[in-house]
# Entry
Amino acid sequence: MIKMDGIRKTYRVGDVEVAAVRDISLHVRKGEFVAIMGPSGCGKSTLMNLMGCLDTPDAGSYLLDGQEVAGLDDDALSAIRNRKIGFVFQSYNLLPRANALENVELPLIYRDEGGIRVKAAAALASVGLADRAHHKPPELSGGQQQRVAIARALVTDPAILMADEPTGNLDTKASEEIMALFKDLHRQGRTIVLVTHEPDIARHAERVIHLKDGQVTWESRSEDMTVGAVAGGRS
Amino acid sequence: MKIVSTVRVSLKGLTANKLRTFFMMLGVLIGITALTVIVSVGQGAKVQVMQKMENLSAFGAVMVVPGGGMTRGLGSVDAVPATLTAEDAQAIQAEVPNVQDVALVQSKQGMSIKFGGQSTTTMVWGVTPNYPTIRPTPVARGEFFGVEEQSSQARVAVLGQDTAAALFGDADPLEQTIRIEHVPFKVIGLQKKMGASPGGGNLDDRVLIPQGTAARRLFNLTNMTQLVVQIKGREQVRGAAERVKQLLHERHHIAPGMPDDFSVRIAEQMLGILTGTSQTLTLFLSIVAALSLLVGGFIVMNIMLISVSERTKEIGLRRAVGARRRDILLQFVLEAGAVTAAGGLIGVLLGAGGALLASHLIGWPAAISWPAIVGAVLFAGFVGLIFGVQPARKAASLHPVEALRG
# Structure
């Protein structure tokens, strides 16, 4: 599903060039649930932006769903984000004045197709919020808001679901609920890439890719992960 | 992305912050309101003048007055250049094609009129009996004088309503004898109420007497203050006016390049002179109103810029879920355009209402012109589009990653 080869991204801060991602090569198979982990500043957000086609790499090759996207222009990347990628953010990023249903509709209005309302209602029902369709985000709990955001990511039936610290703003109980939802989606065959710095969250994934200083340091299956976390403590 | 969805997205953005949207609208709204009032009242004034000229059948006639200047209204027979004569009128009648009739006018201002102990001062018009057929001069009571009175230089008079009221009050003026500069005249007619002339003179404050009588018994002068040339068919008026000019050049021996000692006017020109001042004023006020629209445009631009920086995260999110740059651009441009078009629409309605109210309350004429209204709304929307482009470009140029960061 995702095949990155020698991907590099450098930022310029003042006169200093900072390599946020250095020659990363990785593979995510269809239907896999992968977590990307590492301390803050390790480049995991940059990697996520590159994977999500929000940003373009300076060098390297990126095959997404069999298509090379490294050299595409802005319009083409917008179309790919719309069709192949569903984003879930830490701060939900819902439109505060639009209700849940309208928030879920948002990606569909950037397509030329009908049945928007029906699809949005179905997506909302799939995350268990059919009865909250006409509530606005401020009227919903954090966990509910994140579920609306997940419905918004799912409404386009994307190839990959990308979640950036999806539980970062949630309490333990709500976090567990959200992670249970991700696991459900995974069981249904979704490909999921999750970015987090919390081992407790990362252990829900099948495979964890560890990042440090813009490079992949090691990979682990989730079973090893628990051991590693115990051994090294929370970094 | 469908244009319908774009418009829907834009409207959502607008209803989300109603107070801000209102302020964005305000500048344009005020500008368009002012513009509508000004244009309506200006247009109304023009329509009113045209209506008056129409009532006086002015469009079918050519006026000749002495002197080369473009004076308004009628002069006094002893104060104007003595260049225009009855013979000129005869020559015009005989030699210019399509001339139906020519009426002579000899007028003098400041004539003292007395009846019993009452006196007033007004303008006396000596006119030929054909005058009412060219310039409708309806008589309410009694009758207008005829050819008989003209040739016999009869001392008879037709009074305007205001003049009659000044001399007689509520009493019946018919068959009474008034004195014009001590010369006795019998009142044989009372004019209907006519109101103001297109030039602003009061047509109800005057005394009409036969031109022959005026020349021989009152003014003792033979020059005219106006010739009114009735033309057969309106489309002939322009050509006839040229022929009259040529004829008078010959008759008055005016060499090419020399200044005329007369001037020939047609109603269309008069319309220009009469509405000239108000048109200048209308233009000036319109420029002021247009400037306020410009200011309104800058307000729109400023508020849109603020709105864009406040909604950075929203823009980032839209980009993340697949909005292209041009979708964002279109959204914000349409937002600005919709606000100003709505402001324009409300402004037009307020302005039209204001103009009608003004015409109702203080008697200003007002004419609502639908093309102007549609134009105003479109123009207001256009202002929004133009001033919305810069903020919209700013929004569209945001990098998705940075925009998402907020």
User: Anything to note?
Assistant: The beta strands of chain B are 61-66, 99-115, 118-127, 139-142, 156-159, 177-180, 183-191, 206-210, 226-231, 262-266. Residues 267-310 of chain B form the longest helix (44 residues). Chain B has a mean pLDDT of 87.
